[in-house]
Specification:
The chain is mainly β and 127 residues long. The protein has no helices and eleven strands. It has strands at residues 4-7, 10-13, 18-24, 32-39, 46-51, 58-60, 68-73, 78-83, 92-100, 116-117, 121-126. Strands 2, 4, 5, 6, 9, 10 and 11 form a seven-stranded mixed sheet that branches. It has a four-stranded antiparallel sheet with strand order 1-3-8-7, with no helix packed on it.
Length: 127
């Protein structure tokens, strides 16, 4: 089992950057595929990005490709989401997710595929 704690959210101007972090408990972090999802106000939670256990495979929603980068540091039990060129539509609560998965590629990029979730961190983008 793994526990996830997100941090790094806040208020940023449109066009600005922010880095989210997700710290995981436990000694088997490197056995987990990790993902980021977000839930804009009044909308359903949606996939943002994901990364395999080794970092060799990464996945992005079309809406964030070229602007967001997911990365991980297995020595620090942490996954990051680097967000650049932020837009008003990026405002949301961002959630970190995990699934024990040692494959080089992830399975589904859906909420139901991930087993563990953090509490979320708020990102607000001012125009």
């Amino acid at each position: 089992q793994v526990q996830l704690v997100e941090s790094g959210g806040g208020l940023v101007q449109a066009g600005g950057s922010l880095r989210l972090s997700c710290a995981a408990s436990g000694r088997t972090f490197s056995s987990y595929a990790m993902g980021w999802f977000r839930q804009p106000p009044g909308k359903e939670r949606e996939f943002v990005a994901a990364i395999s256990w080794s970092g060799s495979s990464t996945y992005y929603a079309d809406s964030v490709k070229g602007r967001f980068t997911i990365s991980r540091d297995n020595a620090k039990n942490t996954v990051y989401l680097h967000m650049n060129s932020l837009k008003a539509e990026d405002a949301a609560v961002y959630y970190c997710a995990a699934r024990r998965w040692s494959g080089p590629r992830l399975g589904e990029l859906t909420e139901s595929w991930f087993d563990y979730w953090g509490q979320g961190t708020q990102v607000t983008v001012s125009s």
